[in-house]
Amino acid sequence: MALPVIVKSTKRGILLVLDDTIPFKELLDNIQSKFEAAKEFYKNAQFSLCFSGRVLSFEEEKAIIQMITDTCQAEILCVMEENELVDTYITQKLEQIQNNKLLKYGNFHKGDIHSGQTLECEHSVIIIGSIFPGGKVISKGNIIVIGTLYGYAYAGVSGKRDAKICALHIDSTQLRIADCTFRNTGVTAGSARNHTTKLPQMARAKEKTIVIEPIKGYFDVI
User: Fold this and answer.
1) CA 2 from chain center: how many Å?
2) Which residue segment(s) compose the domain that 39 sits in?
3) What is the pTM of this model?
4) Nearest-CA neighbor of 32 among 74, 1, 2?
5) Burial of 47 (0-12, 13-18, 19+ CB in 10 A)
6) Does 192 share its domain with 125?
7) Residues with Cβ within 8 Å of residue 196, at least 6 apart in sequence
8) Number of structural domains in the chain
9) DSSP string for 162-178
10) Could you tell me if 90 and 162 lie in one domain?
């Protein structure tokens, strides 16, 4: 590619087109230069981030996010997949939230849930961000994550077996819905995002276990 880093603005955030041939340290320096030059524009801004052109590990993504945050004092709301169906899903959910169609039925949390943090809700919760390894979300209703679910999610705490856990991607080591438990022993949470499905996913209770299925169209779980 002609440039190691190209920054593009989208309707919902920033797309970074990255060269996949140069060392990561050199790439990170190039990204920092881009945001340093425009730090007054991005200062205190809130936006989502999307990567294209290069497969990044979980740690590399964290390094880029931290660098942008430190350089511009910006807030990265979530990391998005470069995918039209996922993009449509994000748009639908954000529009509902902005129109207060979901807020009156549940809780709304903006920002990531990191290791050591626990979010407990009396009702369904919509999270704009990701749940990282070591982070926990516990809800008496549904859990909707507009991001990636790496951490622990427990929906239907009050025994609501029809509760659901939804996310743009589920890469969690443990999920629970009412009295049903799912433990993912075959995936390392927070690994490089080389997902087998680009569709949003939904976990639901089925008999005494939990099944995870792709969401192929618009849905309303609240």
Assistant:
1) 30
2) 5-80
3) 0.52
4) 74
5) middle
6) yes
7) none
8) 2
9) T-EEEEEEE--SEEEET
10) yes
